[in-house]
Amino acid sequence: MQQVPLAEGLFTWPPEPGKQPALVGGKASTGAIFFPYRRQVIIDGVREDLERIELPRRGTLWTFTSQHFRPTAPPYAGEDDARSFQPFTIGYVKLPGALHVEARLTEPDPAKLKIGQEMELVIEPLGVDAEGNQTMIYAFAPVENAEVQAL
What we know:
The structure is a single chain. The chain is an all-beta fold and 151 residues long. The protein is built from no helices and eleven strands. The strands form three sheets. The protein has a five-stranded mixed β-barrel. Strands 3-2-6 form a three-stranded antiparallel β-sheet, with no helix packed on it. The protein has a two-stranded antiparallel ribbon with strand order 4-5. It is globular, with a radius of gyration of 17 Å.
C-alpha cells in the first residue's frame, strides 16, 4: 500500500534520503510565516509570492484539549467509525521563529501532557483514500526526557 499525504503540500513527502519530514510553510517579504503553504498572499493590499520554506520540526506545546467524539465526515477521513473511535488530543505547538501550528498529538492521555512541553513532528497513518492508498497526517509527539519550558 502506498503512503500519501492527506492533502498535497502540507509536509515534505516522501522525505529526502537522510532527512526527516517537515511541515511546508510560506514566508512573506515582511517575515510573516503562513501555514499551510500557499503560493501567494495579500500584504498591505499588494499580492506577493511567498517563499516556500520548511518549518522547524520541534516546538513547545502552547495549549491542548481532548477530542472525545468522532469528527464529522467529511471532512474527517479517519478509518474509524462511531463505535471504534478512540479519543485523541489536539493542540497548538509553538514553532520557534515561525508560528503556532494546530495538530493532532500522539499522546492521547491529557494527564501526560504539559503546557511548555517540547514536541516533535511525526507523520502517522490516518485512513485509506478512494484509490486504496494509506493517507498520512502530521502530528506532534512529546520529546522524551525533555524539560518543560516556561512560555
